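Field reference: "sequence" (input) and "structure" (output). Example, Fucosyltransferase:
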Amino acid sequence: MIRKLCERLLRCCCRKRGFRYKVALFIVGIVITFYLFIIILNVIENNLEEEQPIFHVYQGEPKDEKLPIIIWWTPFTGDTGSFKQCGQHTCYFTDQRKYISDSRTRAFLFYGSDFKPTDLPLPRSPSHDWGLLHEESPKNNFLFSMEKVMQLFNHTATFRRESDLPLTFQYLESLESLTSKKYFVPTTEKNEKGKILAPLVYLHSDCNTPSERDSYVEELAKYIRVDSYGKCLQNKQLPAHLSDPMKTMVSHEIFSLLSQYKFNIAFENAVCQDYITEKLWRPLTVGSVPIYFGSPRVEDWLPNLQSAILVRNFESPKKLAEYLLKLQADDAAYEQHLEHKIRGQISNKKLIDAMNDREWGINNDQSKKNFIDCFECLVCKRVAENYKRELRNSSPLKFQATLHHYGCPKPVGNFTLKEDSQNWWPELYDKAVYEAQAMENLMQRGTNYTSTDFYQEVINLLENSAVR
Ligand SMILES: *[C@@H]1O[C@H](CO)[C@@H](O)[C@H](O)[C@H]1NC(C)=O
Ligand SMILES: *[C@@H]1O[C@H](CO)[C@@H](O)[C@H](O)[C@H]1NC(C)=O
Ligand SMILES: *[C@@H]1O[C@H](CO)[C@@H](O)[C@H](O)[C@H]1NC(C)=O
């Protein structure tokens, strides 16, 4: 039966050979064009999905009755009101507090350094999520070192790898910048310059810090020469046009200056997991070896095991100086710390993966969004999804921050290792312990409270603890 059918079909087409070929060619041509068209359409569609609708901003008033509203409680973006489309979800972002009573309001966002326990959107409704964005130094606000406070948040973007949108690499431009020889000065040239320059450079202008870094450098400088250009322990002058640290932190001239030194002292102003700044990435980028103190797990993110010399591996500043002087006289040993530049090699897969996964860019990287946009979209997607679930009466997804999304340790004088009456940081940290408790007590009442209420509560707690 099938055979017969085939034969008949063939016969029909075989009658005119030339014609059959033309028809076949025509059909094949159409099929190929059709598939090409589909592929092109797909590519365009994917691109649209990847690029445009994922992040699309437009102005207007929120008229849609089912549109989630997200309020920046601590004004931060200067955005008085705009729609942001994130993938298939859209939210209305605003810093206008009047929307607090709008039934569509689903989240409040806080910028960490501006978060005040006396200025909160209270009483908090069960549908009010809180989001925390904080990439700055933990010394700016010790409240986030308290579990009670971190548990108030549902969504986080902090320097900690455990946060919802980790900002650990906020100062690392790209993997390529680590291997690029743009600023790199070869060892022989550094030896030549070393007849004038010290082996170490120090460029810090924030001199009273929880990490007490200056006291360590002071001690270190007794055993090895340090050129210090910043306001702290200054012994060398920067050219006038480079002297504002905020403006020149990532400038070409500063990079060139630092690249001439064999070692850069890279001490963070506060110690916390994954709080890693340009102090580390700048020397790694220019090809000088960082002498690092800061994040206790920094080795997780170094390009190669020996890419930084870690202060905590040395018993004392004197021992560290002895090691540096040894490297100073042994080029091969010194260069083992520079494999990312000399061999263009990054062996740390964790770092490679983390940077490849990073959605956002820095230094006005036009090919990527910045981390503020990414955080807004993360919150938008989550609350919009929950809003939809709420409207069809299904249970919401849970989002809950923990201490590990921030949680920095109490600052102690790790370098001096003695009582330091000049250092007020531990005291500030202790104060935050009581403030966190006062916040919890007052919020449990389920009403708004005044700053007088708050400070009275802190005093009560302090007095009670003194009695105990
Ligand atoms: C809370 O109370 C303070 C002072 O009583 C007031 O200024 C503020 O607007 C109130 N906040 C809210 C969210 O109601
Ligand atoms: C947000 O956090 C609060 C406080 O921990 C919690 O009560 C609420 O259920 C959380 N919301 C979601 C959507 O998980
Ligand atoms: C600082 O000193 C304390 C107490 O000696 C120690 O527990 C902690 O690990 C030290 N921190 C760092 C980052 O070295």
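The pocket of 2-acetamido-2-deoxy-beta-D-glucopyranose (ligand 3) is lined by residues 271, 296, 312, 412, 414 (CB under 6 Å).
The first strand starts at residue 56 and ends at 59.
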